[in-house]
Amino acid sequence: MKLLVTLLVLQCMLAVVFGARPSHLSAHNEMIKKQQEDGMFFDAAAPVQYFDQYVDHFVDRSARATFKQRFWVNDTMYQPGGPIFLLCGGEGPASALEVAGFFWINNIAERYNGAVVSVEHRFYGESQPFTRITTDKLALLSSAQALEDFAVFASEFPRKFPKFAGSEWVSVGGSYSGNLSAWLRMKYPHIFKAALSESAPVLALDNFTQYFMTTQATLGPTCSAVVKSIFDEAAKCYSTKGQSCTLPENLSPKMGWAQMSALDYSSFMSAMTGVVANTVQYDKDWATGLTVIDMCAQLEAAAAKGTTQLHTLFAELNEFMGPVDASYADDVAELKTHTPGDAGQSWTWQTCNDAFGYFQPSSALSSQLLPSGSITLTYYHQLCKDAFGIDVTNLAARIAETNIHYGARIIVSSNIAFLTNSEDPWHNLGVLEPLKYCQNCVVHQTQGHAHCASMYAPRSSDDAAIKETRALQLAMLDALFSH
Which keywords belong to this entry (predicted)? Predict the structure, then answer.
């Protein structure tokens, strides 16, 4: 079962495909692990620093313990009075790269003589309130606590660094941290003057079947038919208990098809979708080496040579993300093994307990990419219950309450850029229509691009669509800051 977390853009890059898939790390998490092992993540460009953050913002101040929250600062472009751009940490570890030119926000800061500060999200990376994690301690992992973290940090930052006194703040984020960025501006307008929010799924949703519908549309009819044939074969293997099955061993469960329960089947199919979902979600960005065009060309060529070649290639493509062998018991066991810094566990907890949902079951339509009933909503709900003891009988109601609390797509604010991308499955949960009650706000979708596309540093290959998206953000900020 692929870990679905997703990302602030470095979280967009390293975080997983967003949702609740706890095991078999996605391509992005595997890539980040390899980069960490190779020494890519270093702090030479911006030394790591630590802020004494409150463990619980909602208890009496006299009883508040603190923990060390990681952050990085790039003030090489800063001039007194320039704005500070706060990169909100998201569902994965943060890094010095975020303030060292990997993202476009560094170019924006230079334009306005500003600084960039990246703050890691609690319970991710090394920003751990506890050395030992238990389910009751996970209760302190929530979007509400995270918003308070960033607000307190911004308020206290000038005391730690007096030269920034008087500077105004702009929050920045992508994916889940895009939610946080927008919510910071909405909740703390006296602290954050503006917000940039890309690929933000502000609409919490229990039954997010649109995820794979967009994935299928992005693949196109020929490629999606090839991919669908693989998933349909897996469905046949399951329904016949392996009696009529052409999938090779490395695309089959070790427990055997005959022993699979319905929950095991959902876990297995979730794992099988990994390479396709990740390639579509992060198509053409800086984080992956595989594009939709490349993947589809390989799959279509293999399919023309027969099912054996096709299945062999698909298994090889998935290998980078870990084996597809999966069981429901393994998923639960992994989530119940409380390890500080485990992004999969932390994000799955948030989808369940923070009541975002974002669960991605297969559609009931037989024409869709995944066979009907292959990944069920029951599977996701049962994970929340068995891994964390969460009462799922009222989960749908709690998800509705999340939308009431944060407003979902009803935004009453100002100076926020809501950016989505047409190829990104998460655009379905973003702000897509003009906002009646949001002054000097931008709502724009970049055509032909995927998750967090405009947040990466500019490249010579950037097309007109990306350039237009960046120009709209600058126009909003130009109305607020001199340059």
Answer: Glycoprotein, Hydrolase, Protease, Signal
